[in-house]
Amino acid sequence: MTTTQDWFISVALPVPLRNTFDYRLPTEADPTANYMGCRVAVNFGHQAMVGIILSCHQTSTYDPAKIVAALEILDHKPLFTAELLNLCWWAADYYQHPLGETLSTAMPTPLRQGKSSAPTLAAWQLTTEGKGLPETALKRAKKQQIALQYLLHNDFLLDADARKLDINSTTMAAMQKKGLVEKVERVPEHQAPKDAADQLLRESPLALTEEQEAALSQLSFHRYTCYLLEGATGSGKTEFYLQAIARTLQAGKQALVLIPEIGLTPQTVARFEQRFACSVAELHSNVSDSQRTNNWLAARDGRARIVIGTRLASLCPMQDLGIIIVDEEHDLSFKQQDGLRYSARDLSIYRANQLQIPIVLGSATPSLESFYNAIHGRFAHLRLTRRAGAAKPPTISRVDLRGKTLTAGLCDASVAVLEKTIERGQQAIVFVNRRGYAPSLLCHHCGWIAECPSCDANLTLHKAPYHLHCHHCDAQKPVNRHCPQCNSPDLNPRGLGTEQTEQWLEERFPDTPIIRIDRDSTRQKNSLQETLAVVKSGKPCILIGTQMLAKGHHFPNIALVVIADCDQGLMSADYRGPERMAQLVIQVAGRAGRGEIPGQVLIQSHSPDHPLLDLLLTKGYHLFARQLLNERQTAFLPPFTHQCLIRAESKRPQNAIDFLKMARQQLSSLMPPSQQLQYLGPIPARMERVNERFRYQLHITAGSRKALQKLLKEGIEKIDQQALARRTRWSVDVDPQEV
Ligand SMILES: Nc1ncnc2c1ncn2[C@@H]1O[C@H](COP(=O)(O)OP(=O)(O)OP(=O)(O)O)[C@@H](O)[C@H]1O
Ligand SMILES: [Zn+2]
């Protein structure tokens, strides 16, 4: 007879090592059970850790005498489905990241820490006193009466159902105070998805426009295809998603919807809940840890039929996934910039392919990568060129700033149009690319500029509260009264930030609400939603904001959009600068005229005749993107080539440089440079010093993705074995988005 003593498990642990670890199965475990994908508690050195079981076997390549027993198996049911394990495996391999850390990235924090994976749902039930009440009680508190009536007919009221009945937590808390209800935790029941199919929709779908109809008829639901939905702003991409998802749900399958970070979620979730009667689970950083865990498990168990989330949702287990939607697929937030540097979009394309299901990448301004794939037939290209409903595309004009006086970033002509817009009782957006009051503080007498002591960066001046702030290392300082160099009191803000425009507009339009939307103003949970409620009311107001305002909001009363400065993107040193500038301009401009009011867009620029800007504004994003693609091809740049960055940082610059020299040597000994493989570096990062550390990088550009992957697979392993690799902080970034 075999005992658990004869069984070994291989475990992936969240440590920066690329191998897995063998343990004995704990004595109380059942060797015939399937533990693959379950969490296990183990001792690793002197530390207790939570790992994931990858396999169970009767032999080990290590000396069995030295293998210790694992402490405890933490799950009854695998947390990682075989499909998710495979996905993480691929991600670890492709992005050159340790598997254990990759699996850890996929899990919500409580699960990572070893907390229980038994899902629970918060619910209310009547106390004995509550049960004694007649249905007609609580007449004076309508909402409480609705809750009471519900509870007299049902055993309990789930928090989620309370929301659907429009009963909020204050109502329930009031009833609890009266001793009528109490809080309980329910184990969720499994809801058979097929039963729900006939009562799927809560509202009837819109009649599709011709273009939407044509695009939807091209979707095939039973095999893998990656669709690029290139749809103008306001063309009704969301309606397209909703109807594609309805068909998926009808077939008894789940849908996964990925959206960019910040702000968008509540709006999108509301749209989905309004349409569908089934359960919609959210996965993003604004959901509490315990709720995130429950939602993650609900997706695994199939209780959640639609999962909506940011990048991190792409690594969630799904019982029976039928479609993936990536909205605003060009958005940078889909790429993680530390740890596992994955692209949620690219990962999802791989996932859809493995599952043989459709994936839709939607955007008005597709990334050049996706655009290229669509043109070359790797993706199916769907287009929506016209706005849905009555809305017309906005008229866009350029405002030449040369020789004009600027106040808080705006010239007189733009202010005059703003004034008219407000007089007409309409709303406007002023787009300013930087937060804070001014990007630097300058001594007018000697030219001294306030710099961050730890970074190669100027300190940003903020007025509310009044201080100097480094946007790179987060250091904060009081504002100097005198120049530390020449002692002159003549210190002045230089450059433009959102706070400055806000302050000036408040003085200029004292009777109009001025609403600033940037990372500083929306730091608190839900505050963005509260602010946006004012905009939704439709009353005249002026919104000032950064990129956050560009992303997918639908405000029907915005008549005017002013882009204070689009020159930065045109002059950028990053080859992606023009692409990003164009996406931003089209997205921000796309907020104007989405309802019945026609939209107008003013683009202020010191180089209004710049050929790229001209191309974008006269020919549109599609032709602009084609031209950029031609330029990229000539310059041996992505998407025609494939890149990897190896980054290193250290307190002494030489350490990082030495490490990268070694890395370059190791790699080029495997594959010497050629026309199809270029090495560049070590070179300093764009900002060389951040937070007292010097940052360098090695760029590798290859003509073929396969060759690059082969090089990395063999090369990183060799680099890993060098002593320098253990002494240096370094990372690998495959398909980097910021170089
Ligand atoms: N078939 C349709 N008939 C009537 N109205 C529609 C239809 N499809 C969409 N709409 C409406 O058009 C407006 C814009 O749609 P939506 O927000 O989906 O645009 P979008 O393509 O996602 O734009 P963006 O990329 O700017 O976010 C919404 O008010 C939506 O209700
Ligand atoms: Zn700093």
Automatic annotation (TrEMBL):
GO biological process: DNA recombination; DNA replication initiation; DNA replication, synthesis of primer; double-strand break repair
Keyword Cytoplasm: no
This protein's UniProt keywords: ATP-binding, DNA replication, DNA-binding, Helicase, Hydrolase, Isomerase, Metal-binding, Nucleotide-binding, Primosome, Zinc
One GO location term (cellular component): primosome complex
Residues annotated as binding Zn(2+) 1: C443, C446, C483, C486
Reaction it catalyzes: Couples ATP hydrolysis with the unwinding of duplex DNA by translocating in the 3'-5' direction; ATP + H2O = ADP + phosphate + H(+)
InterPro entries listed in its UniProt record: DEAD/DEAH_box_helicase_dom, Helicase_ATP-bd, Helicase_C-like, P-loop_NTPase, PriA, PriA_3primeBD, PriA_3primeBD_sf, PriA_C
The keyword Methyltransferase belongs to this UniProt entry's keyword annotation: no
Pfam families the UniProt entry points to: DEAD (PF00270), Helicase_C (PF00271), PriA_3primeBD (PF17764), PriA_C (PF18074), WHD_PriA (PF21213), Zn_ribbon_PriA (PF18319)
EC number, as in UniProt: 5.6.2.4
Quaternary structure note: Component of the replication restart primosome.
Name of the protein in its database record: Replication restart protein PriA
Species: Teredinibacter turnerae (strain ATCC 39867 / T7901)
Gene expressing this chain: priA
